[in-house]
Queue: 4 jobs
Job 1
Amino acid sequence: MMPPPLIFQPIFREKVWGGRRLADRLGKPLPEGVRIGESWELADLPDSIPGGRSMIANGPWRGRTLREILHEQREWLIGSAELTEEGGFPLLIKYLDAQENLSVQVHPDADYVREHPEAHLKSEAWVVIDAEPGAVIYKGLKPGVTEADLRAHVGTPAIREDLIAIPARPGACHYLPSGTVHALGAGVLVAEVQTPSDTTFRIDDWGRTDREMHLEEALACIRFGRDERFSGRAAPPPIDVGPTRTEELVRTVYFEIERITMREAGLLEIVTSGMPEVWMILSGSGRVEASGEPMISLEPGRTMLIPAGLRGAVARGTAGLCWLRVSLPAPTQGMMAST
């Protein structure tokens, strides 16, 4: 009998812009007196990134890394999904708490990575969980902003005028493909799904002066002018089946995100179709039951990896149980995101 779904020990990252809402809103056991900006929920990064691999927190493999089990139980764990070039799990799952603005930044695209193998492509999506009144997300450059404009405004308040500011509305999903200038605004808590990379090129840090900037590297990745990647198809209507409602939030060549809500108390059979899934529990309560295995509670802040080979498991939830279902799509599919 194979083990149940896997849960992991969170990896907390101290950030100058971090806060305490990961504890207050999601129940994370944050260390005292530290500003935590990120909780890495599922990570399997390259050897070059210290502390970038998740430790299993339940079942017979408790205390071992995801990478170890991935190589021992590849078919059961990820089925027909492909590993990264370094042999790792193809997603990085996080929560981000921005008490202050994140740096204005960009991540490398495929062209940059081909010429700079030490960098790793990074495309990501944010699902807004909570936001203070007036909070925004900075997503892309305004039409007409040139490289010369950006160079002139870096390090000055004028940088704000170059960025597209979008109100941060809880429930909204924002896709940020590589090459997109962006920043998470102060007062916003998000779930983040991304390709497994930690390569970030900072352009401006809102007056903070103690961190390195990477302007030239960023300029080599930025897409100036209209970005057609943000003109995806409209989101399809929600689908109601039994006690659940499913909403498609984003579909990319790297990952798909759906939001699933229990409209009433009920049971849901877990069917993986030969591919792994990641569940991020946002609200409500419930449990997962797998034959002969201890139950796994479903509570806000819990992240769970559903192995491709899991069989005979069900989720029971109360009305209002809500989670993000993250899956790996076929590589030919396109992109859609709500704003």
Job 2
Amino acid sequence: MAKATKKQALGRGLSALLSDPNTDINSAQDKNADQVIGQVINLALDRIQVNPFQPRTHFDDQQLQELCQSIKELGVIQPITVRKTDFNTFQLVSGERRYRACRLAGVPSIPAYVRIANDQESLEMALVENIQRQDLDAIEIALSYQRLMDEVQLTQEMMALRVGKQRSTIANYLRLLQLDPIVQSGIRDGFITMGHGKALAHVTSAKQQIQFYERIVAKNLSVRATEAMVQQQNTHSTAKTPKSGEYATQQAALSHLWGTPVSIQAKGAGKGTVTFSFKSVKELEELTKKFIGES
């Protein structure tokens, strides 16, 4: 009887395996898992939940309408990917734009690849899939790389293997996150390119970044012109920065006063840091007492 029930379920198609509690699949080790996982199955939209790990937060309304019209005429050409979360319940891994367009089109179901993955695997699949897309802006890609580093504990070298990119390429994207939010918005909105952003990332002052950004937009500067502008500014700043050796007299005086080696590091514009060294906890305690006037 059990064999007959199994054959009957298989005969109804792949979707039947997931809609029958007796043949439901919850892990890759379950019977018939190979019949479903990695296969395209037609799933009802109301059985699919949006992925909370989705890196993309903005969907262009006009593009959604265009995709909606295409789906009405031709159907969904590329299946979405989902992971099974419970009986007859699935969560999007990739393909949210197609999912949203189907809802707009009033389509009741959508073709989908079924995966079984835990939350971390789901996050990684969603991020990697989004990184591979051609219509993401540079900041979205950079944020996805950063999330992979923070939440999936991947190094830049591991990410390079996952997404098939050079490590230097990943480093360049991550450098964009050092930019002031105004400059990042300029990249997302298309006022400047990633190349401009890479050049501006070498400017440590947020105020200076914004000034350069406004100059790039106002004068329609090329990436090469921007790089030259930044290099000139950095060279000028370095020339004005006094060398640490110029404070040798002050270092010697402080070392004599406090009885410990002292280093002065200049940072330009009259700013810098003073470092006191100690060789043991006892020396640190004695130095602390001197600072607070107990000895």
Job 3
Amino acid sequence: MTALFIGLVTLDLIYLAQFPPQNNQKIVAADYTVAAGGPATNAAVAFSYLSCRDAPWRVSRLLGIVGSHPMTQLIREDLQKYQIEITDLDLTTTNPPPVSSIIVTQASGERAVVSINAVKTQANTEAIPADILQNIDIVLIDGHQMTVGIEIAQTAKANNIPVVVDGGSWKPGFDKLLPFVDYAICSANFHPPNCQTEEEVFNYLRQLGIPHIAITHGEKPVKYFIQETGVSGLIDVPKTAAVDTLGAGDIFHGAFCHYVLRENFLDALTSAAKIAAFSCEFFGTRRWMESFQ
């Protein structure tokens, strides 16, 4: 089984501290880590880790812009550990990759993030390899390479390859992408135009004919809707003592892609919620895998 993850690739500098700095203040971190980041990237790592445990022939492919700046070597080395196949949409660019600086508060696990997303590193459809969907079983799109994502989603839909969208926040172009989506997994911060309430968000997504819809709320239950049956409900999220919530949503999406290939929608949501909650017990976006049983 192979999954294709399309979107943002960053270099994350993650610090654990008692609190974020105030103006003109210097603080000393208790711990730090460096890793490749971005919603699609973290999801690809989670999928690869879980899938290699259960079925070594499963593969994660990551489609985004990495380039050839010296800093990208850190990204490539990190992803190589997790057997991620990178397809670079602009291998020749020497621009530095987007860098995120993240401070995680020790007492609460909450995070403060300063970053540049993929706005300055957008690829066009000509950069898409002709065989990108060959042997692909599921596609996840995080919206950070929207033009590429729309093109691939259309092709995937025509070839009966399920498409998952990571709706972290609304981005221009989602209105063109969403009609080709099978699973819309959105955060509570996802607000389509003229949608102020969660019910309005669900109605917007339902009217597009998306078969499966879910909205996450951090440690609170996941709300879902199934178009075919009209059934809606809640999926509980396991309680945990959060050390770091960074990347939990991304890990949820990667785990969902892994489980939905072998479970039904509700079971996949339940399994993904357990993985995401477990990941919050560890600092950074990778250390949970060292203790997962």
Job 4
Amino acid sequence: MPRFLHTADWQIGRYYSRFENDDGVALAEARFTAIERLARLAVDERCDAVLVAGDVFDAQTVSDRAIRRVFNAMAGFSGPWVLLPGNHDAALAESVWTRARRLNAVPDNAHLALEPGVVELRQQSLAVLAAPLTQRHTHSDLTEGFDELETAEGLVRVGLAHGSVQGLLAEGIDSANPIAADRAVQARLDYLALGDWHGVKQINSRTWYSGTPEAERFRNNDAGVALVVEIASPGAEPVVTRHATGQYAWVQWKEQISVATDLDELLARLSELSAPAVVDLKLSGVVDLAGERRLLQALSVAEAKHRSVQCDRSGLSLQPTDDDIAALNADGYLGEVIADLRELQVSEDQSRAQTSREALAILTTVLMERTGTTEEASS
């Protein structure tokens, strides 16, 4: 009864340039610790093997240190690992894989499927049919060769491939590295383990994408998961179980603030969000001075709680109410300046609108501190 772990798209070496440096470093580091979690999961779930369906590395140019760290992170599971080259780490004549071998970094229990064929794991009752990418993009179905591959009697046939199942993924995904949707049936596979789609996706009862074990983008595609697959015997239906492996949840919200209760709901959701997370907010609408203070306070708390909190407030106009203006004692020239800044926030020139918003925020803050409004509001 073979039981194995299906994972893919580790993307080791990925950079996160959109984040602050310390956040980007932490997110990159999480991809290494994800491998350690996978090893522990394989042990805890009594798996016979771990199958990695491509894109172990994000690029051929990763450092020697990164290569060594990948294989070191796998040490927690002593059973066989089968690693398949994907489009980011294709099995070129000179590749990250040939460097790994020259470095003597590949342990004995790691099988590098650099050529099409069968990786036979007799002790685990598994025959892994591998279709490695030998260039970044192909326009023929490399899994077609599975149809002709013979495997020893009594071994469960598992295909391992990296590419796009035709006609079933999002529009625009079908351009390269195609895979037939019925390959499992055509090749008499008990299971087809796929990589390239970064979230969990079931194609049919025998064909699955595992997704990446650590999310790396704001997309609701069920990332941060690995699959434990159990197959009782050749021909039996696979039993597939999802296991959460991600360290960071990636959350992206676009919110329109029209009334005070909209802000109330947003801040409640933000305070209830499980840590640690990577949070991206894009706000639009209007907020008064009290709402602005509450928002800034909530963001400050969230920044200390989560890995990263980014908030785009360029579309959120700061609109002091008449009571706000009266409390600031902003008569005469100051009142005229505040009125002008309020109007400029709706400028079609986004840079000018943002500058006006920031200027209004600074001015009102100074006036609040001068008049003691801030202390009154917080008491």
